[in-house]
Sequence to fold (816 residues):
Amino acid sequence: MKNNNQEWIEAISLTETGKNTLSLAREQAKNLGHQSVGTEHLLLALTMDPTILACKILQKASISHAQVLNKIETKALNITKNKQRKNLKSTPKLRKILGYSVSLARKDGFTLAGTEHLLAAILDTPDCFAYHVLLDLNIDFTRMKKQIKQMIQVGRLDSNKKATKNDKQNVSKTPLLDALGQDLTMLATYHELDPVFERDAEIEQITEVLCRKTKNNPLLLGEPGVGKTAVVEGLAQKMALGQVPLELMERRIVGLDIGNLVAGTRYRGDLEDRVQKLITECQLDKSVILFIDEIHTLVGAGGTNEGAVDVAGLLKPALARGTIQVIGATTLDEYQKYIEKDAALERRFSTVKVQEPSKEATVKILQGLRHGLEDHHRVQITDDVLTDAVEMSVRYVNKRFLPDKALDLVDEAAAITQVKQTTKQSEKLSQLWEQLNDLEVQHWQALMQSDLKKAIQLDQQREAVQKKVDRFYERYTTQQAKPVNSDAIRQVISKWTGIPLTKLRQADKQRLLHLEGKLQKRVIGQNKATQAVANVIRRAQAGLNDPTKPMGSFMFLGSTGIGKTELAKTLADEVFNNKDALIRIDMSEYQDKIDVSRLVGAAPGYVGYEEGGQLTEKVRQNPYSVVLFDEIEKANHDVFNLLLQVLDDGILTDSKGRKVDFRNTIIIMTSNVGATAIQKDKIVGFGKDQLSQTQIVQQKIKEALKDTFQPEFLNRIDEIITFQPLALDSIRKIVRLRLQDLQERLAKQNKRLEVTPAAVTYLAKNGYSIEYGARPIRRTIEQKIETPLSELLLADDNWHTVTVNFKQQKLNFVTQ
Fold:
């Protein structure tokens, strides 16, 4: 087994001298106690071996190892020392230098970069540490670049020339693939991929497919963000560590960028020619396993008209012969839309489903990735914050999937915390740097004017400011990381969803303890109904209900206009903190048997198959919702068979075979059964005894209920709630609620509306009907109050308060 140093070095496309130099740079970083390998360590290594070309060029410029080391130690005072660290990662700037050096080498006709290319890359990167070290040493950048170019042209190169020109074994077999793709195994070898957690089963399944004799091309299917690419990266990491079967020990996974593949193919045949060359390279180099993310984009790519061969068609023969191996990844929808229809392509792959991880598994994934986030943002992230992030992302971010949405949530919350912490510090540092630059200029001017006394004073001032800068960096690198709290998570959720932060801050337990009080403020005259609903919801949130069933299932009974739908809307707002968390299904649209399939999606081959079900798709995208089946008695009997499955198991399977989870929903069914008999007998009225009236209504509704619904359906519902007829006092309260909306609109115009109790009673009696309940109240207020008010405003708005009273059997408007 190779040690970490060898693995890290061999991953780079360098000559042997280049690799030795990079290995030396790593050792220098470790000796200096630095936490990562940077460009300064590479420059230091380039000055240590007088036999390499880069060192000779630096020596000609009078740059010695001691000078570079002294500058690094002076400039790196702020870097935290860590002598114990063994596995050092390269900095982004060093990776940029390495990649750029390889590009320079290929531009000169070589496949491997030598030390001269490494030095040239440093000279072309002004924002790296090594560049500023050379700048402080007053080198002539133009002259040094010219020397490197001349040496390459006349052939005075180090061992790279022999390796690239004469030794055919070192010539890359896959130059096109190297240019278009990214070697994931190479990245894994020097620890540049994020670790992968909770995906061992999928990685093992891919490994088994790759080791098969036939159909050995895995195709990962899963929703966006569930970790399909992470699974492939996990396999690449196992390959880099040698933790795979012998058949895969010498293999490498290369990710193919479809954008790079298509880019620049302007003329007909360019893309096909490029793909054929790519296939040929993969056939010559048996170690390559292609990874194509979004593989469905290959279907139709390059085909200009019907019957033309697309990229997928070019891959089919090679896949059929088994001369190349491909790992694909796509979503289930795209698979069904593009690949499944092409039987010849589909049969070449073995599907591996990547399911969305559970909340518990997502927490473990975030715990594994926590250290990377903490190092990047310089914050602390506790387990409680990770748990809150998962819970809130599942509850409020509905159209994305775990673990992606939870990881994004934690990442942004950490960024918010870090920005708040460092903004003031950055302003102070900028002032110090500006002061230091001014002193540098003044010091240089004093030297030019031969004013040595002033130059010494300025130099002392400059050293004092430099010490402040160094102390600032030292404090910054050693200060205790600020913890990310749950409030930062809520802040991000509020930004993403638009839900007010104050609502998100309210504790769920405290809010639910007083749920019925909040419901009764908006649903008037139905205290028993709101109490029954609140009790069921509290049991569910306390974990006492059956966890395999929805949070609560209710049937609201009673005549129209007495608050059934209003209670459903209020529940969505109060329980889920979102007034839009209401999925309303009008069951009068599902009276025919053929309409029932629309709830779960049309069968394959029928119109609308690709759109998904009107019920299942909405719940799949909004799993925390109130599902309202309005006028359930009008639905076809087959609908009740679907609902039995939901009420029993909390799961419903759509037409595409996806299981939709209803366990976090509240199911509400409204019905007007018995209302016709009540209206016919004229039971409801203000003058009747309220208690006897309620008893008669309940008896009538129970009889109608038994005649309409099957017992096995009714027995699966948590609560069957009969809404009471509205008393006159309740109607008055509803009128006042509606008038309150009008008063708020008038207040924006600096006008005040007052309505006397007599006027409220008049509106209540005129706005209520036996047939429509309280629904006509809004129209009554529009006709009796808003219309006269609009005339007053247009005729003369020179008034502040208008009082509406009821005298002589009519409403009167008095302004003042």
About this structure: Residues 1-11, 156-170, 304-308 have pLDDT under 50 and may be disordered. Residues 554 and 668 are 5 Å apart (CA to CA). The first helix runs from residue 4 to 10.
